[in-house]
Amino acid sequence: MNVLITGAAGVLGKAVTGLLADEPGIQLRLTDVVDFHSPHEVVRADLANPEDVDGLCDDIDEVLHIASIHPWKEYTPAQYIDCNIKGTFNLLEAAAQGPVKRVIYTSSIAAMGMAPKADCPPPWDEAKPCTPYGHLYCVTKHVGEQCCHLFHQKGAFSYVFLRPGTFIPRADDDPSFGLGLLSSWVHASDVAQAHLLAFRSDVENEAFVITAKVPFTQADSVQLLSDAPTLILRHFPRAAKLKAKGIELPATLPRCYDVGKAERLLGYSPRVTFGTWLDSFLDGQV
Predict the structure, then answer these.
(1) Per-residue pLDDT tens digits for 188-231
(2) Beta bridge partners of 158
(3) DSSP character string of 53-114
(4) 65 in Cβ contact with 47 (< 8 Å)
(5) Rg of the chain's alpha carbons, rounded to an integer?
(6) What is the pTM of this model?
(7) Do residues 62 and 3 touch, judged by C-beta distance below 8 A?
(8) How far apart, in Å, do the first and last CA atoms of the chain sit?
């Protein structure tokens, strides 16, 4: 099978490439807007430029479209439009003209929207209506998903949307990372593993939330929005020791996510959760 990975020079792209390189019978074609070295075929391309995309999907069976810019850094609105919308559309158009059978699109939980809504209490899953406002990035990810829908409706490839949470590189002993695992954060290695699981699966035309697993349910929604520390301590008693280290538990958790669908259909099982981080942090293992 011939596979194209976009954004292959980035943090996630490199990790996914490393995982897929070990899969039997896979030939990789890698692309990014910057030069980089790899033992695999490399094509430097600016996806926002149709001429660069021409031929990129020739002989490709499956695409993992990871290339994107994120609010981790400062970007102009034009850069968001060029990379996340124009680049995605150009790539999908090329995929539709070639033999591509499926596109695994790295979307984001941002495509669902970030703002809490009274009629949609946490934890959120894929059933949450997409209301992408608050940042242009949210809109671009939602548009990317809609572009995949459009080409599929026209009889082209099937798709899988992976909606990872925040995986900005942070030290594992950073308390903000650990506490973030209760909400929207996820370890980059778990995001990469989710891509491998999606690739290995025969799932089509589905979206998946990819964050760290939390034990909260809809029955906890009121407490998540009013008294999160009590709820956290109920599930993680050792978290009481964080206060002695000057680390306060979040007063509320207006955004947290349910990864049950990814567990059921992909076999997703995040290696890093708040529970595993807490034990490692308190035991001095990170």
Answers:
(1) 999 999 999 999 999 999 999 999 999 999 999 999 999 999 99
(2) 102
(3) HTTTTTT-SEEEE-----TTS---HHHHIIIIIIHHHHHHHHHHHTT--EEEEE--GGGG-S
(4) no
(5) 19
(6) 0.96
(7) yes
(8) 39
